[in-house]
Amino acid sequence: MIRFASLTTILAALAAAPTAWSDAPFARAGEPHAVVSGSLNRPAQQLLAVGITDVDGRLTSRSQAVWLKPGRHTINAKGAVTHLGQTPGLRRSIGQHNGSQAIELDVEAGKTYWIALDTSDEQRDNWKLVNWRTEQTGAPDAND
Questions:
Q1: pLDDT tens, N- to C-terminus, the chain (144 residues)
Q2: What is the pTM of this model?
Q3: Is residue 117 a part of any domain in this protein?
Q4: How many helices and strands (H and E) does the chain possess?
Q5: Is residue 142 part of a domain?
Q6: How many CB atoms lie within 10 A of CB 127?
Protein backbone atom coordinates (compact mmCIF):
# COMPACT_ATOMS: atom_id res chain seq x y z
CA MET A 1 0.00 0.00 0.00
CA ILE A 2 2.84 2.39 0.83
CA ARG A 3 4.55 1.69 -2.51
CA PHE A 4 1.28 2.32 -4.35
CA ALA A 5 0.85 5.69 -2.61
CA SER A 6 4.42 6.68 -3.47
CA LEU A 7 3.97 5.69 -7.10
CA THR A 8 0.72 7.66 -7.27
CA THR A 9 2.46 10.72 -5.81
CA ILE A 10 5.31 10.46 -8.32
CA LEU A 11 2.92 10.06 -11.27
CA ALA A 12 0.87 13.06 -10.12
CA ALA A 13 4.02 15.17 -9.86
CA LEU A 14 5.15 14.13 -13.34
CA ALA A 15 1.73 14.90 -14.80
CA ALA A 16 1.85 18.39 -13.27
CA ALA A 17 5.40 19.09 -14.49
CA PRO A 18 4.44 20.60 -17.88
CA THR A 19 1.97 22.92 -16.16
CA ALA A 20 4.57 23.94 -13.59
CA TRP A 21 7.09 24.65 -16.36
CA SER A 22 4.63 26.80 -18.28
CA ASP A 23 4.22 28.97 -15.17
CA ALA A 24 7.96 29.31 -14.72
CA PRO A 25 9.77 32.52 -15.70
CA PHE A 26 12.27 30.61 -17.85
CA ALA A 27 11.86 30.44 -21.63
CA ARG A 28 12.49 27.39 -23.78
CA ALA A 29 14.29 27.34 -27.11
CA GLY A 30 11.99 28.72 -29.78
CA GLU A 31 9.97 30.88 -27.38
CA PRO A 32 10.30 34.67 -27.37
CA HIS A 33 12.77 35.51 -24.62
CA ALA A 34 15.12 38.02 -23.06
CA VAL A 35 18.57 37.15 -21.77
CA VAL A 36 19.75 38.31 -18.34
CA SER A 37 23.49 37.94 -17.90
CA GLY A 38 25.76 38.59 -14.94
CA SER A 39 28.95 37.33 -16.54
CA LEU A 40 30.95 40.47 -17.33
CA ASN A 41 33.25 42.34 -14.96
CA ARG A 42 33.78 46.08 -15.41
CA PRO A 43 36.53 46.72 -12.84
CA ALA A 44 37.16 50.32 -13.86
CA GLN A 45 33.49 51.07 -13.22
CA GLN A 46 33.53 48.99 -10.04
CA LEU A 47 30.93 46.61 -11.47
CA LEU A 48 31.51 42.95 -10.68
CA ALA A 49 30.17 39.79 -12.27
CA VAL A 50 27.42 37.97 -10.40
CA GLY A 51 26.02 34.48 -10.27
CA ILE A 52 22.25 34.38 -10.74
CA THR A 53 20.74 32.20 -8.01
CA ASP A 54 17.01 32.40 -8.69
CA VAL A 55 14.32 34.18 -10.68
CA ASP A 56 10.90 34.84 -9.19
CA GLY A 57 11.80 32.46 -6.36
CA ARG A 58 12.70 29.58 -8.69
CA LEU A 59 16.25 28.31 -8.43
CA THR A 60 18.38 28.18 -11.56
CA SER A 61 21.34 26.00 -12.39
CA ARG A 62 22.56 28.51 -14.98
CA SER A 63 24.25 31.17 -12.92
CA GLN A 64 25.92 33.13 -15.74
CA ALA A 65 22.86 33.87 -17.88
CA VAL A 66 19.20 32.91 -18.08
CA TRP A 67 16.53 33.07 -20.78
CA LEU A 68 13.37 34.65 -19.42
CA LYS A 69 9.87 35.05 -20.73
CA PRO A 70 8.97 38.71 -21.34
CA GLY A 71 7.55 40.50 -18.30
CA ARG A 72 8.50 41.69 -14.83
CA HIS A 73 10.87 39.42 -12.91
CA THR A 74 12.73 39.51 -9.61
CA ILE A 75 16.29 38.26 -10.08
CA ASN A 76 18.50 37.31 -7.13
CA ALA A 77 22.26 37.09 -7.57
CA LYS A 78 25.48 36.98 -5.57
CA GLY A 79 28.73 38.74 -6.43
CA ALA A 80 32.21 37.45 -5.80
CA VAL A 81 35.33 39.49 -5.25
CA THR A 82 38.33 37.21 -5.44
CA HIS A 83 41.24 39.64 -5.38
CA LEU A 84 42.13 43.30 -5.16
CA GLY A 85 42.68 43.64 -8.90
CA GLN A 86 38.97 43.23 -9.54
CA THR A 87 37.96 46.21 -7.46
CA PRO A 88 40.02 49.38 -7.79
CA GLY A 89 40.10 51.44 -4.63
CA LEU A 90 39.61 48.61 -2.15
CA ARG A 91 42.36 48.43 0.45
CA ARG A 92 42.20 44.70 1.02
CA SER A 93 40.76 41.53 -0.40
CA ILE A 94 37.29 40.96 0.93
CA GLY A 95 36.56 37.48 -0.38
CA GLN A 96 33.06 36.39 -1.28
CA HIS A 97 30.28 38.95 -1.06
CA ASN A 98 27.82 36.55 0.53
CA GLY A 99 24.73 38.71 0.59
CA SER A 100 22.24 37.86 -2.11
CA GLN A 101 20.97 40.94 -3.89
CA ALA A 102 17.67 41.35 -5.72
CA ILE A 103 16.72 43.45 -8.72
CA GLU A 104 13.39 43.75 -10.50
CA LEU A 105 13.49 44.02 -14.28
CA ASP A 106 10.79 44.41 -16.93
CA VAL A 107 12.35 42.35 -19.70
CA GLU A 108 11.43 42.45 -23.37
CA ALA A 109 11.96 39.68 -25.91
CA GLY A 110 15.00 40.19 -28.11
CA LYS A 111 17.04 42.10 -25.52
CA THR A 112 19.98 41.24 -23.28
CA TYR A 113 20.13 42.78 -19.82
CA TRP A 114 23.56 42.94 -18.21
CA ILE A 115 23.50 42.94 -14.41
CA ALA A 116 26.39 43.37 -12.01
CA LEU A 117 27.20 44.16 -8.41
CA ASP A 118 27.92 47.89 -8.05
CA THR A 119 30.81 48.14 -5.56
CA SER A 120 31.42 51.88 -5.92
CA ASP A 121 30.43 52.61 -2.31
CA GLU A 122 33.16 52.10 0.29
CA GLN A 123 30.63 50.47 2.61
CA ARG A 124 30.12 46.88 1.54
CA ASP A 125 26.58 46.90 2.96
CA ASN A 126 25.68 49.55 0.37
CA TRP A 127 26.71 47.49 -2.65
CA LYS A 128 23.76 46.77 -4.90
CA LEU A 129 22.73 44.82 -7.95
CA VAL A 130 22.27 47.04 -11.00
CA ASN A 131 21.24 46.71 -14.65
CA TRP A 132 24.20 48.52 -16.20
CA ARG A 133 23.48 47.84 -19.85
CA THR A 134 20.62 46.73 -22.09
CA GLU A 135 21.21 45.66 -25.69
CA GLN A 136 18.93 44.74 -28.57
CA THR A 137 20.03 41.22 -29.49
CA GLY A 138 17.63 40.34 -32.25
CA ALA A 139 14.04 40.25 -33.32
CA PRO A 140 11.59 39.78 -30.46
CA ASP A 141 10.99 36.18 -31.51
CA ALA A 142 14.66 35.41 -32.27
CA ASN A 143 16.21 32.16 -31.13
CA ASP A 144 19.62 32.60 -29.52
A1: 455 455 555 545 444 444 444 558 998 888 999 999 998 877 778 888 899 999 999 998 878 899 999 999 999 998 865 554 555 555 444 444 556 889 999 999 999 999 999 988 888 888 899 999 999 986 554 444
A2: 0.70
A3: yes
A4: 1, 9
A5: no
A6: 20
